[in-house]
Amino acid sequence: MRPARRCAPQRARRRPDHALSTQDRAITTLAAPPFRFAALHFFALRSGFFYLRAESGSGWTDFAGNAAFLTELLQAAETLGLRVGIYTSASEWSRIINSMEFSAYPLWYAHYSRPLDFTFDDYYQSPFGGWASPVMKQLTGNETCNGITYDRNWAPSIAAASRPTPASLPSKPSSPAGRRSPGDVRACAVSIANDAVGLGANPHNPTSRASYLALIAPGETPAMQEAMGKMSGCGLVVAGIWRDTGVTSSHLDAPYVVASAISRLVTIAWSANAWVRYEDKLAPSPGDMVLLDADGPHTHVYTVITIERTSTGYALTSVDGGQVDRQGCETILLKSRTWASNHDTVKAQGVNWGSTKTISGWIDVTRLPLK
Question: How many helices (H) does the chain have, and how many strands (E)?
Fold first, then answer.
């Protein structure tokens, strides 16, 4: 069963060695000889998500040997049902691994600068390792406050919870009595969407697969869950994020009507007056669902995580279902995008990449029927 979703974004915490769980200890035994593990530490991010830290230390050998060791450790973690990513920096990665074979795993990278840069722009200017986009950034190391030493980190899910609505947007009416505030709804949707990053239908990672199916197909028969796991999942993922955010509609309930993944979302939006047609002077906010190419052959939807005004339009990060991993299985990824006029383009490794789609509009998550 998928762990309960939490609506409050949480910062990652470094876990002391004595707090390692039984599963953690099982993996550390695979990291022999011990000196190699000195440069690979576990970090926890939310429930059951761990990052392997690849940094300089004694015991590293050649690139091929280091890559093989990292592969062994990642596979061991996945065998134990853990969701794993990689923590490193551009300089450390180039010295230790120098490979593009690990880009399917989420990246938490370190880049220190003053003033603090709460964006991934530095990564897009100097990408490494084949990652299209990071999921988290370490801004500083070994800061001290009230006798406590800590590292400062930033991720879109943390920033989005308090990010103001872009200035170009009209102000939203206050919520009716008894409803959650728009800010709470947006923070909840963003947190749930970010928690879903990395989940997928790959049978080689049964824990991730179980969580993915629980997100997109709750209450469905096993046969339907199996079938939905093979479907393009962009609309199914948005529906799951809405359910966990507290959106209530019979259109989201089982049984699922095949080929209605996106149309049912639009139906809910129309009935709630939550649909916003694209206009130059408007923009979505974190937590909203964007619809691309509504009348084209490659319709796509995603959830906005962050959005910022630029000189040419907007820069966004998004959580997208309907993606595939290296084995061709459905997965959920964090992406960066640019908006120029009514065109949406995925951004990767510092350049615009992939086909450009037309922005049809978006759904204001705060106007949907909520518990």
Answer: 11, 15
Residues 125 and 203 in one domain: no
The Cα 364–Cα 269 span in angstroms is 8
In this prediction the pTM is: 0.58
The CA distance from 161 to 149, in Å, is: 25
Residue 176 covered by a domain: no
Per-residue pLDDT tens digits of the chain, which is 371 residues long:
454 444 433 333 333 333 333 344 334 434 433 333 333 444 444 434 688 888 877 677 788 989 998 898 888 888 877 778 899 999 999 989 999 888 888 889 999 988 888 888 888 888 898 887 788 889 888 888 777 888 888 876 443 333 333 333 333 333 343 457 888 899 999 999 999 999 999 999 888 999 999 999 999 998 999 999 999 999 999 999 999 999 999 999 999 988 889 989 998 999 898 999 998 889 999 999 999 987 777 899 999 999 999 999 999 999 999 999 888 999 999 998 999 989 999 976 444 456 789 999 999 999 999 98
Do 274 and 319 belong to one domain? Answer: yes
* Total number of domains constituting the chain: 2
What phi, psi does 159 have (nearest 5°)?
Answer: -70, -35
Same domain, 71 and 129: yes
Domain extent for 327: 182-367
CA distance 352 to 356: 9
